[in-house]
Amino acid sequence: MNISHHIERAATFFPDKPAILFEGAALTYRDLNARVNRLANALNANGLSRGQSAALYLPNIPQFAICYLAIVRIGAIALSVNSMYKSEELDYILNDSASTLIFTTAELLPNIPLAECPTVKRVVICEGDPQGHATLDDWIEKASDRRALTDLDANDPAVLLYTSGTTGFPKGATLTHGNVVSNAWATMHHSGFTRGDRMILFLPVFHVFGQNFIMNATFQSCATLVLHRRFAPEPVLESIRRDRVTMFFAVPTIYIGLLNMSLPDEALSSVRYEFSAASTMPREISARWTERFGRPVFEGYGLTECSPFACYNHDFRHKFGSVGTPIENTEIRILDADDQELPPGQWGEICIKGPGVMQGYWNKPDETRQTLRSGWLHSGDIGMVDDEGYVFIVDRVKDMINVSGFKVWPAEVEQFLYKHPAIQEVAVYGISHPEKGEMVVAAIVLREGARATADEIIAYCRRHMAAYKAPARVDFVSELPKSATGKILKRTLRDKG
């Protein structure tokens, strides 16, 4: 088994088909496989061994796919690093992973603290001025073209993906070849990928959603990846039209932004499928999208630690507000604080078992034992399963707000606030309070031309929910802080007080 087997298969059966479309250029499956093979041989020649890690500190460019596939082809481990990270963040991850090689760009090179990372022996520049370092093109050009694919066990580690880390330092989720391959097949099956599809990818490819659910599943299905460096509405909408994109993947904040644009009816005419993940889609937004475009936004659920796909809201029985039912060969249970299973309708921690569940956290046995117990991945998410087996998510455990002993789940308050006609985006979070323990705060972005006061918003909430759930403070902001995937960063809001 090897993740990169699927590239060889696509190159055999569809050699002239575009694997990647990027900034006006096409890379066929024949060319992609040839470059991956040559780079794999170059890696062997330059001392990268099976089981060692090599870092990908790259933006969304085709070179990411080439480097990623070459690393795993020889049995080494591909470490995906957030391209927004700076020196101190890189210092920890590169040393923790003991990476011996890093692929990057001239633009990002100044952020790499080489003096503090003794294991890093080589830097390879994939774009821009090499500044004395080796270049990817040079390595590929000079390398042998002999077949370099290594056959591996399903349990061999393939990918390191560091979680953001809510406390302390990030943890490297170790995904195996079996994890990634099984997840790609599950994605193809449940989402209906075909080789005739064109999937747009503007979400960061270093993130598990962009990397496994979109990139790997696209290549597995011999489809075409329409790659963008980032999300920008006008270029993306033009690309959808020009490149005949059929499948659209985004996060809730992007769907919210598109709904607040005056899109012509034909803007998404080629798209047959929309999917949302990374955070829960507000019901009001999902309903508005369906009304506007005549089809639902499909939702799934998962974590980096389960590769990520674990749950899917099917087209044949779609439930608004749910993330669906477990994918094939995957189990989901709702457990209480004593790890006892709860009956349908009761809220508890979502726990997952299946072929996508990670091997563990890199070099962190204690954290691994805490998260993986009796074969079950403890997600840290609070949810429930209804009588028909559909999973509903309320929030992250860490985001729960304790107001005078009462639990407040931010997602519940947000779902209601999205019904207010003046609100475009909202984030609800808790901050400390000297008497109540915590108080509820709502950071709100108003729709263009809309007006509202804090007192009006608070009164609106108090009319429709228990007083302790209603925001005690409302802050109007021009924008909400977001991660590279578009997920709202509540920790940043909390830190500001």
List keywords for this structure.
single chain, alpha/beta, Rossmann fold, GMP Synthetase, Chain A, domain 3, eight-stranded mixed β-sheet, five-stranded mixed β-sheet, 27 strands
Q: What is Rg?
A: 23 Å
The number of domains is 3
CATH evolutionary superfamily of the largest domain: ANL, N-terminal domain
Structural class: alpha/beta
Helix content: 25-40%
Q: Biggest β-sheet: count, sense, barrel?
A: 8 strands, mixed
How much of the residues is beta strand, in percent? 25-35%
Number of strands: 27
Q: What is the terminal separation in angstroms?
A: 50 Å
Mean pLDDT, as a whole number? Answer: 93
- So, CATH architecture of the largest domain? 3-Layer(aba) Sandwich
